[in-house]
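Z., the sequence and structure:
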Amino acid sequence: MSAPLPPPPGGPQPGAPTSGGAQQGGGLRSAFGGLTTRGRSFVAAGLAAAVCAYVLGQSDLLRVGLLLAVLPLVCVAVLYRTRYRVAGSRRLAPSRVPAMSEARVHLRIDNVSRIPSGLLMLQDRVPYVLGPRPRFVLDRVEPGGHREVSYRVRSDLRGRYPLGPLQLRLTDPFGMVELTRSFSAYDTLTVVPRVEPLPPVRLAGESSGYGESRTRALALAGDDDVIPRGYRHGDDLRRVHWRSTAKYGELMVRREEQPNRARCTVLLDTRQGAYFGAGPDSAFEWAVSGAASVATHMLERGFAVRLLTDTGSSVPGPEGGGGFSGDSSDMAGLLLDTLAVVEHSDGEDLSAAYEALRSGTEGLLVAFLGDIYEEQATILGRMRQRAGGAVAFVLDSDDWLTREAAGRFDVPEAALTDPEDPDTTEHAVQMLREAGWTVVAVRPGQPLPELWRQADRYRSGEESAGERREAGARP
């Protein structure tokens, strides 16, 4: 950011209007509006002394009153006509920071005029969620010199927060007047969800061609394929398949193939009715952080990752090869930026997400779900048929609310649990297991790496039991 303060008529002065008599008068009126309490008190005392001198006929008192009244006005005129310019810049380190971590903001003020500046007060506008607004006092900046200051910001909540504009407050040595000028530029700090490192387990049950292996898919470069396709504008004429051209009566070219990355879809349930509570320790924030951790982990393993929500929106979009594309580092940044601003949806089911999955066969499907019932479990069961492997982390709101209430009222969690109350979420979880999902129930306070290992153990156990059943059924 670099934003020099605008010059007034007749010279580069901070914040004054650029041309026109009316604008100049308006700028001067705003300068008089910058009188501090001390300056207004001096003007009021001077006028009162002048009135008293006129009534009492005291000329000495009149001189004192004129001095008191004129001094603040002289300070306004001098400060308003000061001929110097300053430019400000801001640098974030880093510009993308995980929640509950600190970032440092570096500010730099350059005096680009030929005279030294006076006393400057620097203030940056910062959202209150990032901390108090920082203020700095700069005594004197020589011509062509600069001053650098910095401050720290920290947020427990993810999101995108604007920083700025930078405000510069000018004051005279007597403290009679303060003029505030603002730069026009601002920056954005992105607070992304926390990403936990996950152990490099191999989830059993992935279909061949997924995981660490690679498949081959039809594309525009690579080894020749025997299946031809119709000619498209821009195709290399050296790829024309003359035998097929003669057979079909139109120009045909040879298809080609290239290696295809293994695929993983991370499904995030954002339904507002599926979660209760708010704040950095809520169930929804845990699900968002879990989705970010799994997406980053799978990208590091070489998977092509897509983020899908219950509304059917996916990142990247379907135009990128079915939603899977991009470099790993760039894709990780895109997914984290998306999760930084994801909010609750007003939907009640997962039909839109199922329609998005119907576009093609998925690889590994990892879902983070809130409260689910029989209707959602039925849709998720159909989703399982579109994936080579499916793992679900289910966050039951009853467990999270029970823990919060137990901590607030300092009572055991068992005392707040009704054993006769039917748990519909537990019934839906059983339906998912019967449909072939590997389901892990998430309790408050459980770390995601341990749950990731637990999912691998569950999946391995299910596959082993299935192989034993198949072996026993064979004659």
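The first helix runs from residue 21 to 32. The chain has eleven helices and 19 strands.

Let me know what you think.
H.
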